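It would be a great kindness if you could assist me with a short task in structural biology. The matter concerns a single protein, recorded as an amino acid sequence and a row of backbone structure tokens. Kindly check, if you would, that the fold set down in the tokens agrees with what the sequence suggests. Thank you for your consideration; the sequence and its tokens are set out here:
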Amino acid sequence: PPNHQHNRVMGDDLESDDDYLTKIYHNNDSENDDKKGLFGISNKRSRTDSIQAEEIITNKKKAKAKNKSISKIDHTIPSGKRKLLLTAARGIGQESSDVQAAFLWTCYTHALGGTDGGEKFKSSSFLSWKDKVQLNRGAWNNEERDIKYPFVLKEAIAAKSSMKKLKEWNTKKSPMILILCISARRCVAVLKAISSLKIRCAKLFAKHMDLEDQVAQLSSTPFPVGVGTPNRLSKLCHDGALSLQSTELIFIDGHEDNKSFTVCTLNDTASELAKFIHEQVQPQILERPHKIQFVMC
């Protein structure tokens, strides 16, 4: 039959079962001999691999422990030069014009990094009020600042011009006074603190008004006072909605946040403040010396 024929043909291609099995057995023996011959080399390799694996695991554990310890460090805690700036910022409003000029110049150049800061700030560009406002508690802190804000503002205006001029201010796009704050929330607090003066103030910060609305408002209405953040003020200046051409006083609000940072020392606002001073205030100081001044509050 066909099947039987096929099996025989297939069987003819192979040797007998005994020969086939014997060959397999001998092949296995030779393989075992080879393995025995390589056993010493294999063991050496496995020991080397094991040592290398242990070293890798140890290094990974060390790296992990290091990363863990680094992650525990609070990078918001100031150190070195920043710590000195924070200490100097405390009560800077009560210092002399010389000290204020040196402090703001240090913050300014520190924030600019390698950028040329231009001509160094002079004490004549700072209006000091320290001998004119009596403090209730002897220390210039956040609470005292908010209580005394209207008095500081009045003294600064009196030294520069008059309250009458402020209230009758009619120059659009260029407030007589700009107050720069650390955040939108702080801007709101400042507006509340000076509300007793009954002066029209422009809200020049984000969250409460859109940029387009602020542009329209500055173009249509003269504001004696503008309160804002450095970032928003820079944007308004670049859009042509805000100008310092007629501005007389630049108030630097010294309010400290819960980590003791101010608009001059907090990384984000310090760089924006430096940019605003560099691009907008410095040219005006050079063009109109003594007619535009800083007030550290």
Observations:
- Residues 1-26, 69-78 have pLDDT under 50 and may be disordered.
- The two ends are 114 Å apart (CA to CA).
- The CA atoms of residues 117 and 278 lie 7 Å apart.
- The chain has ten helices and five strands.
